[in-house]
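The following record pairs a protein chain with its ligand, S-adenosylmethionine.
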Amino acid sequence: MHIPVMLQETVDCLAVRPGGVYLDATLGEAGHAVEILRRAAPGGRLLGIDRDPVAIARASARLQEAAPGAAVCVQGNHADLGVLADEHGFPALDGVVIDTGVSSGQLDEAERGFSFMRDGPLDMRMDPTRGETAAELLARLDAEGLAECFRTLGEEPGAMRIARAIIRERERRPITTTLHLAEVVTRALGGRGNYRRHPATRVFQALRMAVNGELEALEAALEAALTRLRPGGRMAVITFESLNDRLVKQTFTEHVGREISLQQGGSRWEGRLPRMTWVARRAMRPAEEEVRRNPRARGAKLRAVSRPAGGEESFRDRVPQSTLKTTYTGEIV
Ligand SMILES: C[S@@+](CC[C@H](N)C(=O)[O-])C[C@H]1O[C@@H](n2cnc3c(N)ncnc32)[C@H](O)[C@@H]1O
């Protein structure tokens, strides 16, 4: 079973209140969702979204037992978070959680093709009912395309070397299984030698992110969720890859914005609406004890923001009366 990462810290960041309305955009096995609904009782509600039909089936059963009638579970892509939230009666939210990446269930299931430790078909789709598999992507891209994918999504320094090795190998026989790919990558990089992690880690990460359009989906989900937060609402995001974390940090930073001092006195805020404030200015990391218990928590980063209780208007209170020239803008200037 998936052990939820930074469970207490994440749900603490949401400051869950009884009767509140919440959205979990990566429901998984409902670890975070169960805790949110426990704290939101009585009267709390939660919309859970996951691309994976297996995860949705398991999470629905678990939530029905833990908090009967309080959760709605929907199979879908959180890139469509806005539409799904509106369709299912969750247009305004008190809290949103996103816990990116794969669940232990997905990783441990050889058939899903996420792991270089288990032999299985190179699939990697979070929703196995649609889209191109990792094997199909590997067979379609040319050397430049493969290298670009490994470089940008996996930050793999040996991207071109690996891409050429894949092209040579697939001329001999198609690469359709996880262990076959892991072996080609390991050989291309000259064995395990200098690597602390498995040499294929970055390539598997890149393929998973490409197959599932992870960055694009996360970007869309962040924007849609922020605009649906009620005043006082909060959002917490857990990431494991630096690319995902950079996107979250950049998006939150733009919504927190900054105060620009004006020559004539007072200040002007520049940023993207809705204006947010940091729950914690820096990313939070799992405690050593958690990493000992659950090594998969290693590398997790938690970032959280909140929408001020009085909405945009509440910021006016911070401006001294003598500087009434202060203006507020909604655009990035
Ligand atoms: C790390 S797990 C979440 C675990 C969950 N927080 C728990 O405690 O059980 C991430 C989940 O997000 C789902 N997922 C990934 N990308 C998604 C997307 N674009 N839309 C919806 N779900 C997605 C995966 O299928 C996976 O089940």
